[in-house]
Each structure stands twice: as structure tokens, then as C-alpha cells.
Amino acid sequence: MAGYKMKLISLTKKPGQTFGFYLRVEHGEEGHLIRCLEMGGPAELAGMKDGDRILRVNGKFVDGLPHSEVVDMVRNSGASVTFQILDEVSYKQAKAQGAKLSGPQSTPVANGVANHGPKPKLCYLVKSSPTYGFSLRSVKGQEGLFMTDVIPGEVAHRSGVNTKDRLLEINGENVDDSTHDEVVEKIRQAGSSLMFLLADEETDKHYKNKHMKIGAWLATTKYLPHKPRIINMIKGSDGYGFMLREEAKQAGHIIKDIDRGSPAEKAGMKEMDRLVAVDGKVVDSYSHEQVVDRIRLSGNTCCFLVVDKDTDQMYTQGKVSPMLFYDDMKDSNSPPSYTEAISFPVPVRPSTPVKEKEEDLKPKLCKMKKTSADFGFHLNCIQGVCGQYISEVVSGGTADRAGLENGDILVEVNGVNVEQRSHGEVVEMIHSSGSSLELLVAKKSVYDKLKAKGVAITCMLLKETSYVQVHSAETPETSMEKKHEKEARPETPTEPARERTSSSSSEDSVDERL
Q1: Which CATH number applies to 364-513?
Q2: Spatial distance between the Cα atoms of 107 and 90, rounded to a whole number of angstroms
Q3: Is the pTM here over 0.85, yes or no?
Q4: Who's near 148: CB < 8 A, 6+ residues apart?
């Protein structure tokens, strides 16, 4: 990389905020491009420019990685992320000259940290007495706040906190710029539990020497009391023996109805576990059908990362992904015995791998009005293929309340069929619709079946206007309650309409807001 100067940029966002840019891949352009910088957003303020190329994310070289993998790395970083960036002109010159963009930092890294480097630590404190058993101090001429008076045997000490540890985050919020009094107040307001990100003296010095920001994406999870579970399974002829559902009152993909004696039961899956990842791929943003398809594509063996309720709550409080645990286990030489279970013969019984409930072959008519910047969903397409699909529906947003779901295929916009329209045309139709929008959509499975039957998908297929077709597991009573609730307020406003495009597969997003 001689002659080319890379920029090292660290970004931190507040809860509910984005990093303020789109990450794109574009036809005829190489690399992961920075586009659509938000004026006054973290990215613009840190010095990012339109057309810059991202070379590294948290120390890992990404120039040759698939777009979706880079997006996942940024999202899994939590509230802070570090980039190494090259400007557009330098990037194109380097490519033309065949320069080695990976440069001298070719040491393999895992989750942004060289395998031999120290890691900060996540510590979860649950108060069982009036205090946690530590104090905070500042050191004249030294940046940050540090732990002191850590009482042996008390909550903080048992949770992995040591004297002289530097406090970096409280419940996922960076406190580098906070005063002593502000941090004390945050701790008091947090209640009876806290998630700290801490760095001991060696770790703090290591990253200062590298001029790298320390964030939760670098942390070890070994001090955390609740552990996600890595479950490897061999499928029997009756499948894995569990049902995957979406619950009305719980986010994510939930494990239910585990068959007695099934691979799932023997492997240690539990009722109401949340499925985080399949074969190392985070599935939080996937639709139900996409997760089921991914499991089926795994063949006869599959690796599941799951969390129970307490573990899920703990990671959520710290605003970190359970994938940190998964990466910790990949980095360790010997996998933990408490997460393993799992190769065994299964009796042959006729059935299917993952149970799904029957669905009506009907589209959905979703009506929405906005009062904020947009409608609360992204519009994606598959490059070179006609058709648009919905992604990243904001939970509780206008689109969500109107019944729009991730993976829905878009058929009509305000009564106009858009199946053969270009992505740009459809985006413009949505933008020009003003504050009201009516979309006719269909779940992909429904869309494919209707097309296979040669049925034209129009509002005529709706016996009555239905704003929601929930594919989660629920009783007939709760299903009807939800339907009536949605129909009673189909036009409740909420969040933003953002457009995105996708590359050669529906999982590889070409245009990502970060």
C-alpha cells in the first residue's frame, strides 16, 4: 500500500441511531462503497466521503468479502465500529496498478482482534445487596474512568471486575466522554443489573498503541454468567424434531414443540429458546420462510446458536450480539463441553424436517400513512431480475402495523402492478405517493405457488380487506385478536421508508443503510 494513505475512522452511534451512511456495491464499480452520507451523522462528522471504499472492518480485511458478510460485520459490531478506508481515486489507482490492498496487516484476525492479542471483557453485574462492591476514580492526566476498591467476594469481583480496569461502556453506551458524576448517575439509574465493557491495563495499552477504538465487538464473553448454546445436530428422517415459530409477544425466531426423543431434545434445545444463527449466519432479520429454507439447505447436519430468555435479556441489555460467544468458541482451541451434544442415530419416522403451518394462498393489502420521515421498511431487488421484495420492516413502525413483513414480494403500489418495473421506478412511485401508501404484497411462498398455478395476483383474490397474515405460532383466539387489532388501526403511522437493492442472492444486500 506504499503511496496510498488509508483513513482510520471509528464511529459510535446512540441507541436507535444509524452510523449515517449507506454501504453499497454497484454495477461496474469495485469494492464496498460509502454512499448517501447523512448530513451531520456520525459518518460525515468523522470524515467519511461519498465514494470512499471500506477496506477493513474492526481490523479485518473485507475488500474481497461478499457484501452481505461485510454488512453483518458492521451490524454485529453494536454501537461502535472501526473502519479503514481508502478514497475513491486512490482505490481505483491501487486496483489499476495491482497494489496489495491488504497491506502489511495480513495477520489473520477474528472479530477484529488478532488471535494472540488481548481482549476487553464484558461483565454482567446483578446487585444482591445495596452496592455492587466497587468505586470509580479518575486519574489526573489520564483519559477515562477506572475501577477501584473492588471488594473481594462482592458482586463486581465475582463478575470479573478488577481494580484498575478501565470502564468503556455501560449497558452498551460508550462513556469515554462522560464525566465522573454522569457515569455514577447512569449506574444509579440502571437499576439492579449492569453490563460493563472493561479493559485491563494491558488491553487498554495494546489498543492505544494501535490507535484503535475499543468496542464491544472486540470483547470476550467468558466472564458472562449466562451462555448461548452452540448445538450441532444430525437430522433424522423425521427432521430435527422441533417447530420454529414467531411469537406475538417475543421478537425473533422461537423454538417450540420439541418432540420427545428427537435430535433437538437430545441436543439440548429448550422450549422458548430463540434461534440466533444457523451455520454461523445471524438470522434475526430473516423472515420465517428464509430461516426454514436456510435450515433445509444445510442438508443433514446443521449448527444452531440459541439463547434462553435470561441469556437473551443479558445480551440485549448490553446491546451486543450472542455471536460474540460464537466467535469466542471459534477462537478457543477446545470447544466447551456444555455446548456440545450431538451426533447420534435417529429412528426412522416419516415426516418433514421443520414443521410449518398451512397458509392461505392470498396476498395482503397493506395501507399506511406516515408522519415521520418514511414508512419503516426497505425495498430490495435482486440484481438483473425483475421484482422487488420487502426487508428490514421496523418493529412497531407504520409498515409493521399495516401487516408488511420481511421477505414479502411487492405486487402493486397504489393499485399499479409493478412486477415488471425497475427498482428505480418503484422507489420513485413510493416516494411520490406522499404521506399515504397502499401496497399489495404476497409472502414469497404464496407468490410462487400462485404464479405456478398461473393465477394473476390482484386485490380480487382478497375476499375481504385483510391487513395481516401472521405466520407465527398462536392460538386461533390470539390470531383473531391480532387481526382485529390490525384491521382496527391499519393506518397508524411510524418510521422511515428506505430503499435498498440486492445482489445476486436475496441475502446479499447491495445497498445497506448503516
Answers
A1: 2.30.42.10
A2: 23
A3: no
A4: 134, 135, 136, 137, 163, 164
